[in-house]
Amino acid sequence: NAGVTQTPKFQVLKTGQSMTLQCAQDMNHNSMYWYRQDPGMGLRLIYYSASEGTTDKGEVPNGYNVSRLNKREFSLRLESAAPSQTSVYFCASSEQVGELFFGEGSRLTVL
Amino acid sequence: RKEVEQDPGPFNVPEGATVAFNCTYSNSASQSFFWYRQDCRKEPKLLMSVYSSGNEDGRFTAQLNRASQYISLLIRDSKLSDSATYLCVVYANTGGFKTIFGAGTRLFVKA
């Protein structure tokens, strides 16, 4: 019963460093998402993938890139981390509208 | 104006109390509505969908008022374990992915 698995769970970066957040789901869902959550802001969509082979920008895509590697995996890359990207990142997958299954989150701090 | 607005709370209630949360949305084309629950430092999890006629799941009742563009969540006989943040979620198919999360309402249930 793994569901959605994200790695790493915690990461500290220095400004300008790069990193990739990995996400995998085992529910055979077509759609996958990356959100960030900041205090008082709620969850904001960074990128999503409606199906394997497609990706689209969400509300806050600047500074991020994504790859839908296959149906199971959807990675999020920060090419040059900035302090404004300090946040909790959640990966999610879904098959039905609005019914998202989230990973446990990745806490990123950029110094 | 935010697309989905919630009273951030916190709501502090004693065990056994009835508590209600409201959520307003600005997009009149919104089609689907949900409540999610998020425990402290955990991922959001779907609590219930909200149907046009209203729906109930045990101690939880969700209502939708399309004319006034708000949804509500009523929790009866509050338990300590109900302490969490409740997120209102609205979906609108108006070109591209459009599932918007509210910032959440915090609930503390005390003995």
Write the layout of secondary structure elements.
The complex is a heterodimer of chains A (111) and B (111).
Chain A: E1 4-7, E2 10-13, E3 19-25, E4 31-38, E5 42-49, E6 56-57, E7 64-68, E8 74-78, E9 87-94, E10 100-102, E11 106-110
Parallel strand pairs in A: 2-11
Antiparallel strand pairs in A: 1-3, 3-8, 4-5, 4-9, 5-6, 7-8, 9-10, 9-11
Chain B: E1 4-6, E2 11-14, E3 19-25, E4 32-38, E5 44-50, E6 55-57, E7 60-65, E8 70-75, E9 84-91, E10 99-101, E11 105-110
Give a count of the beta strands of chain B, DSSP E runs of length 2 or more. Answer: 11
Q: How far is it from the N-terminal to the C-terminal residue of chain B, by CA?
A: 37 Å
Total helical segments of chain A: 0
Unreliable segments of 5+ consecutive residues of chain B? none
Helix residue percentage of chain B: under 10%
Largest interface: A-B, 22 and 24 residues
* Mean pLDDT level of chain A: 95
Radius of gyration of CA atoms of chain A, rounded to a whole number: 13 Å
Elements of chain B, N to C (H/E) = EEEEEEEEEEE
Q: Based on DSSP secondary structure assignment, what is the total number of beta strands of chain A?
A: 11
**From the alpha-carbon coordinates, what is the Rg of chain B to the nearest angstrom?**
14 Å
Strand content of chain A: over 45%
Structural class of chain A: mainly beta
Q: What is the string of helix and strand elements of chain A?
A: EEEEEEEEEEE
Mean pLDDT of chain B: 93
- Describe the main β-sheet of chain A briefly: 7 strands, mixed
Strand content of chain B: over 45%
